[in-house]
Amino acid sequence: MPTLFGVDIAGIINRELGPKLLPLTLTGYTAGTRTVGQLSGGTNPTSSTATGRGFTEDYSEGQIDGDTVKVGDRKVVILGASVSLIPAPGMTVTIEGVAYRIERVKRDPAAATYTCQVRR
Questions:
Q1: Structural domains of the chain, ranges and CATH numbers in brackets
Q2: What is the largest CA-CA distance in the chain?
Q3: What confidence tens digit (pLDDT) does each residue in 36-46 have?
Q4: Radius of gyration for the alpha carbons in the chain, expressed in angstroms and rounded
């Protein structure tokens, strides 16, 4: 993890807040190769998973524009030092038993948190 001004802020936040937050699973997918002789059969994607900690939050009515942020979208804030994968659009995050697709991700300068716009 990167440091900010020589301080492992992400590690400190994870150590202090992590045990108090919800467990989550982050899943990323990588396209595979086509099966020989099955050109129209698609690829054989592989997945990578990582567990971590975070919390969910609803968007306010003023933030929902129907285009970028739709009704039903939520925020999942992931502690950066709690996961071994970097959240990215297209990944899945499962928290409180609900799986969401990540649409957008914002990271703070210390990579202490990743704020993900998610959709069911």
A1: 9-32+43-119 (2.40.10.270)
A2: 55
A3: 777 776 777 88
A4: 17
